[in-house]
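Final report, closing paragraph on structural work. Over the funding period we assembled a curated collection of sequence-structure pairs, and we close with a single example.
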Amino acid sequence: MSSRSLNSLVSEYKDTLANGDIQITYQSLVAIVQGLRTEFSKKYKGEYKTANVLHGYIDFTYFYLQDEFLKQRKLKLAIVLNHKHANFELWLLGQTKNVQVDYWQRLRALEWVNAQDMPEYYIFEATLLETPDFDNRAQIFEAVLANFEILSSRVFSELKALEGN
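Its predicted structure, as stored:
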């Protein structure tokens, strides 16, 4: 949290909003995530249930994916636009805090898991697309879908290995 007064921060906030660029940028980024959600819904119809796009504060825009395997374990995958880093990430989420803690402890040896500190929102995150060309939606969609295929396959392998399947 900033040590500056809220009045000072609000003044800067108003100035930022006054030129309109932040609104256009935010709306455009959300539209990209909505388009990505549509692509996932089409490609994985019948395989995953795809939730609607959700908005964090101004930090994350995301949607959930869940298949029967994940549902039985009270887990979800999320495709996330991290606004701070301007990248796309894959998160593994627990339906409750207890589920999140359990899977975080069990998966701590994985390269994606922060073994020292459990993240607040997810069990782990892995980068799907580090430096998107936001002017090229088709390239974003193609890269995120391709990287999701690779990463989700590895995630499912690790989850199944936990159970000896």
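The first strand starts at residue 49 and ends at 50. Residues 6-162 form one domain. We thank the funder for supporting this effort.
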